[in-house]
């Protein structure tokens, strides 16, 4: 009799413990799983033409994969970002719209040479406001426009590429006389989209972000000495090199490159 009573008490105890465990599990089912890694915030300094792809898809997806890492971005012309890094900007990753700015930082030991990947390729295009009429049909006769919007060649890679193309075509001096220079490629895109400039030169990826502009033509074959390459690398002074490396590896992954392609970029091969 005592043995049977003990068994019943034990069974009731087990049932109570199981019920409490079930209630606890249900109450915590919606709580996020805590990571064993401490929270980290990294800063990415990226060319203005990368802002849409970064903010809309790449960063949110990366943070979903690595929930303990928060990514903050600053977007501007590559030349300005280069200067800011030289002046001590606490960035962890730098992605430029041209090799020139990256190479300067590598040569100054401000970006780790071993980390640099020439990741993407873009195109340079001549644009006009959507639905507008112009006699300009390409880079060769761009001087027929009243105002030509360009990135400042002193600091904006798109402007440097534009100057190189027009110089190769022999009409840079005439283009420069009609040029309105922007501080980054986004500014140039907005000027043309608003009709402040009759034509302008931006990246193909920028032109694809808005219905306010349409492409007249790509830069003629042979007018640029090199491809339009976007390299990415880790800032040497990064306080979070492991997390910076994770972000760079994610951008270079098949998944990251596929997202870049939806924004008009091409993997550099």
Question: What is the fold's blueprint, element by element?
Answer:
Blueprint lengths: L1 H27 L11 E8 L3 H15 L3 E8 L1 H9 L6 E3 L3 H9 L9 E6 L1 E6 L18 E4 L5 H13 L2 H6 L1 E4 L2 H10 L4 E5 H4 L5 E6 L9 E7 L6 H12 L1 H9 L3 E2 L2
Parallel strand pairs: 1-2, 1-3, 6-7, 6-8
Antiparallel strand pairs: 3-10, 4-10, 4-11, 5-8, 5-9
Helix pairs in contact: 3-4
- Under CATH, the topology of the largest domain can be stated as D-Maltodextrin-Binding Protein, domain 2
Percent of residues in helices comes to: 40-55%
What are the segments in which pLDDT stays under 50 over at least 5 consecutive residues? 21-33
Largest sheet: 6 strands, mixed
CATH class of the largest domain: Alpha Beta
Question: How many distinct folded domains?
Answer: 2
Structural class: alpha/beta
Major sheet: order of its strands? 2-1-3-10-4-11
Per CATH, the architecture of the largest domain is 3-Layer(aba) Sandwich
Question: What would your notes on this structure say?
Answer:
It is a single chain. This protein has ten helices and eleven strands. Helix content is 42%, strand content 22%. The chain has a six-stranded mixed sheet. A five-stranded mixed sheet has the order 7-6-8-5-9, with helices on both faces. The N and C termini lie far apart (82 Å). Strand 1, helix 2 and strand 2 form a beta-alpha-beta unit. The chain has 269 residues and is of the alpha/beta class.
